[in-house]
Design a protein that fits this description.
Number of domains: 2
Order of helices and strands: HHHHHHHHH
CATH superfamily of the largest domain: Oxo-4-hydroxy-4-carboxy-5-ureidoimidazoline decarboxylase
Structural class: mainly alpha
Low-confidence stretches: none
CATH architecture of the largest domain: Orthogonal Bundle
Oligomer: single chain
CATH class of the largest domain: Mainly Alpha
């Protein structure tokens, strides 16, 4: 956890620079939260998370889908090419997804392809603190869901990822 100024005291540019990465490739969320006025409890991870998630929840379905689609596949081609964001790289590595055998990589690739074929979005899971076996089990369970359930689940996982990222930098 790093110390820094109270998020409510930052300029808009500094706020977005500090928190623009919290939601994958989607600085529009902290921009809108800042523009709406940050609540008094936004000096900590939980309060700021609530403010950011309020923006996400109020977004159009198209904007939510774009946010979901901004996420990389787990253990996918971008990871192998070392082309993930710093946050995603660290999170996937924490779950051992950077050290898969060729057979494990192929299993993830097949699941990613099947999931995208069925739902039209990448599989999203907050992987921090999970093992690759837990991730695969969750992947295989969730692929049986219907599209509406998975869309909602993906957004919930994105919110969880955002909270974990905020807790890395705020008390």
């Amino acid at each position: 956890m790093t110390d820094g100024p109270d998020p409510r005291r930052l300029s808009r540019a500094d706020f977005v620079a500090r928190f623009g990465h919290i939601f994958e490739h989607s600085p529009w969320i902290p921009e809108a939260a800042f523009d709406a006025g940050l609540p008094g409890d936004a000096d900590g991870a939980d309060g700021l998370h609530r403010a950011l998630c309020a923006v996400l929840r109020a977004a159009s379905p198209e904007r939510k889908r774009a946010l979901i689609n901004a996420h990389p596949d787990l253990a996918g081609k971008l990871a192998r090419a070392d082309a993930l964001t710093a946050d995603s790289t660290q999170e996937q590595a924490s779950a051992g997804l950077d050290q898969l055998s060729e057979a494990e990589y192929e299993r993830f690739a097949a699941l990613n392809a099947a999931y995208k074929e069925k739902f039209g979005i990448p599989f999203i899971l907050a992987v921090k603190g999970r093992t690759k076996d837990e991730i695969l089990e969750t992947f295989e369970r969730r692929i049986s869901h219907d599209p509406e359930t998975e869309f909602t689940e993906a957004l919930g996982q994105i919110e969880r990822i955002a909270l974990l990222r905020l807790k890395e930098i705020l008390p």
